[in-house]
Design a protein that fits this description.
Structural class: alpha+beta
Order of helices and strands: EHEHEEHHHHHH
Number of domains: 2
Strand content: 5-15%
Largest sheet: 4 strands, mixed
Helix content: 40-55%
CATH class of the largest domain: Mainly Alpha
Oligomer: single chain
Shape: globular
Length: 216
């Protein structure tokens, strides 16, 4: 039986591959695991059936037999641990790959999400103009550290891993900000991730959902 994930019936990112089901789709594509998708509306996400899977009423969720998971990072880690290809065999390298998964979600992503909040949600607030440079500075601090660590390597720690998968997913949120372009090695790093066949399959699958959704 294939695992089933949930995704937006109509994604607010308009098919840009930024919704939280994207890294889960990508991980499943990388390991060659077929999967089914249950599309949910914003209304359905707040109803008891979905809340039983995700107590915060969000996506994605992951169902595999009796196992039900939420949180994209936890789901990607589960996939990586169950299938070859996303975590190294060497114990130390495996732990470092998991470290980079946490770094992507806990250290790099938070200020990036703040940028979205300042621009899209708080843009009309009187403090937004003053707050924006502070948020951008915090992002640059994170990107500077990451850029220095990556150097001229293709991936964060040897071969491509689940750590790279989540880091590229997070950094893609900056594609339209201009900030990523200040770090050529990080721009190239994201581009390498986006050219992986598994990424393209996951991106196209998510885009197809948006394209098929009724207008409105």
């Amino acid at each position: 039986m294939n695992p089933t994930i949930t995704a937006f019936e109509r994604s607010p990112d308009r098919g840009q591959g930024l919704a939280r089901d994207m890294p889960v789709r990508w991980a499943l594509e990388e390991v060659g695991q077929p999967y089914d998708v249950r599309l949910v509306s914003f209304r359905a996400m707040k109803e008891p059936a979905h809340l039983a899977r995700h107590p915060f009423g969000q996506i994605p969720t992951y169902e595999e037999g009796d196992l039900v998971l939420f949180e994209s990072g936890a789901i990607v880690l589960h996939i990586a641990e169950r299938h070859a290809g996303l975590l190294p065999d060497d114990a130390n390298a495996r732990t470092r790959a998991i470290m980079w998964m946490f770094a992507a979600l806990d250290t790099v992503e938070p200020p990036i999400l703040e940028l979205t909040t300042v621009k899209l949600i708080e843009g009309d607030k009187p403090w937004a103009k003053e707050r924006l440079p502070l948020v951008e500075h915090r992002i640059r601090v994170r990107l500077g550290g990451l850029s220095s660590r990556l150097g001229d390597a293709d991936w964060l720690d040897g071969a491509f891993s689940a750590g790279d998968l989540l880091m590229v997913t997070v950094l893609r949120r900056l594609n339209r900000s201009g900030l990523l372009g200040e770090y050529p090695n990080l721009s190239a790093y994201v581009a390498r991730g986006e050219t992986r066949p598994a990424f393209r399959r996951a991106f196209d699958a998510q885009l197809a959902v948006f394209a098929a959704a009724p207008a409105g």
